[in-house]
């Protein structure tokens, strides 16, 4: 018979539920030792984690019930209940440590949170274990937590500072690249304008060359015509068709003056 039943039926019932969970945890870890598949090990650890969460909730209920009964119980009973509570916490922490070991082996020494927080089970920041610690231990743990917090803050400041530096360098680089792009755009506009002017100049030169060619061709035809006429005149001096051409017609007859005839 559970000795707690003589003190409180509710405490005895909670203690029985906790004992059942402890037996399930013991059997579960023994089964886990025999499992070789990593996926099955992970699922088994998840099931054991759920049982430990439930056990934690029951121990909190046990602790609350003990605190409610402190004023009605004698000192010996309160001492026995506190020792019982500490033994439950200690046993749960042993399973938590075992779970950590398996989790570390399963995930390459990576520790994970068990109860959605920075510590698993009833760690140093847990109210149940803190109630059984001395003042010096509480002060040491508090100083350690403050040191860790300060270190985390310093790391955060360092990350923020590095982020600001990276942002500044990135902004400067983007500004330089923007100025370079503006210069490139201006140079492209200048090149486009130069190409347009050169194209117009080439067109004008082409028109001038075409005009000069026409003039040269016309002059060439005139020269050819004159040469042909000269050749024809020399070959056929009596040809009347070219007698009126200046310089090529035969000399006119000398006319006598009337006063020379007398």
UniProtKB/TrEMBL annotation:
Key word Endoplasmic reticulum present: no
CDD domains the UniProt entry points to: SNARE_SNAP25N_23N_29N_SEC9N (cd15861)
Keywords: Coiled coil, Membrane, Protein transport, Transmembrane, Transmembrane helix, Transport
InterPro entries found in the cross-reference section: NPSN/SNAP25-like_N_SNARE, Sec20_C, T_SNARE_dom
PROSITE patterns tied to this protein: T_SNARE (PS50192)
Membrane topology value: Single-pass type IV membrane protein
GO BP terms: protein transport; vesicle fusion
Predominant place of localization: membrane
Gene3D superfamilies hit by this protein: 1.20.5.110
GO MF, any single term: SNARE binding
Residues passing through the membrane, by range: 215-235
One cellular component term from this protein's GO annotations in UniProt: ER to Golgi transport vesicle membrane
Subcellular location, record wording: Membrane
Family that this chain belongs to: Belongs to the novel plant SNARE family.
PANTHER family: NOVEL PLANT SNARE 11, VESICLE TRANSPORT V-SNARE PROTEIN VTI1-RELATED
Protein name: t-SNARE coiled-coil homology domain-containing protein
Taxonomic source organism: Acer yangbiense
């Amino acid at each position: 018979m559970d000795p707690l039943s003589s003190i409180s039926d509710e405490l005895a019932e909670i203690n029985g539920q906790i004992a059942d969970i402890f037996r399930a945890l013991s059997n579960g870890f023994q089964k886990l030792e025999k499992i070789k598949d990593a996926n099955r090990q992970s699922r088994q650890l998840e099931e054991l984690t759920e049982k430990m969460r439930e056990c934690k909730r029951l121990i909190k209920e046990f602790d609350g019930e003990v605190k409610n009964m402190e004023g009605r119980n004698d000192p010996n009973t309160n001492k026995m209940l506190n020792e019982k509570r500490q033994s439950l916490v200690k046993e749960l922490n042993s399973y938590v440590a075992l779970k950590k070991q398996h989790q570390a082996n399963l995930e390459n020494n990576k520790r994970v949170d068990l109860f959605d927080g920075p510590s698993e089970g009833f760690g140093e920041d847990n109210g149940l274990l803190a109630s059984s610690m001395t003042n010096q231990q509480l002060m040491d743990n508090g100083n350690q937590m403050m040191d860790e917090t300060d270190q985390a803050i310093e790391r955060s400041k360092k990350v923020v500072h590095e982020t600001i530096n990276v942002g500044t360098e990135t902004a400067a680089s983007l500004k330089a690249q923007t100025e370079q792009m503006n210069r490139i755009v201006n140079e492209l506009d200048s090149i486009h304008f130069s190409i347009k002017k050169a194209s117009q100049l080439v067109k004008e030169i082409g028109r001038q060359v075409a005009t000069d060619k026409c003039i040269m061709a016309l002059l060439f035809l005139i020269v050819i015509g004159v040469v042909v006429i000269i050749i024809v005149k020399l070959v056929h001096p009596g040809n009347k068709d070219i007698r009126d051409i200046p310089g090529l017609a035969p000399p006119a007859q000398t006319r006598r003056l009337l006063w020379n005839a007398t």
